[in-house]
Amino acid sequence: MKNYKVFHRTWWKLNPEWPDGREPCIGRSYHISWASTEEEARSICKEWNKTHLPGHLADQAEYTKV
């Protein structure tokens, strides 16, 4: 059974009126994978984050229990 949903999303949005040109904003989540255990979910996140730089908007992989 797949108990964890792994996804990525940004934590900022562009806004030239804010310092550094961005303001806090939880972005839409994009599905990456499903995991059976929390350990597996963490591993998937680490692998995804290794190959995808977070960039200016801090796009990061994360997971949630479903």
Topology (elements, then pairings):
Blueprint: E1 4-9, E2 12-14, E3 22-24, E4 30-35, H1 38-51, E5 60-65
Antiparallel strand pairs: 1-4, 1-5, 2-3
Describe the structure concisely for a colleague.
The protein has 66 residues and is α+β, with helices and mostly antiparallel strands. The protein is built from one helix and five strands.
Model description:
The chain is an alpha+beta fold. Helices cover about 20% and strands about 35% of the residues. The protein contains one helix and five strands, in the order E-E-E-E-H-E. The protein has one helix at about 40-50; strands at about 5-10, 10-15, 20-25, 30-35, 60-65. The strands form two sheets. The chain has a three-stranded antiparallel β-sheet, with helices on one face. Strands 2-3 form a two-stranded antiparallel sheet. Strand 2 (about 10-15) and strand 3 (about 20-25) form a beta hairpin. The model has no long low-confidence stretch (mean pLDDT about 95).
Oligomer: single chain
- Rounded to an integer, what's the Rg over CA atoms? 14 Å
Amino-to-carboxy terminus distance: 11 Å
Query: What series of H and E elements makes up the topology?
Result: EEEEHE
In spatial order, strands of the major sheet run: 4-1-5
| Uncertain residue ranges | none
Task: Return the structural class.
Answer: alpha+beta
Classify the helix fraction into a percent range: 10-25%
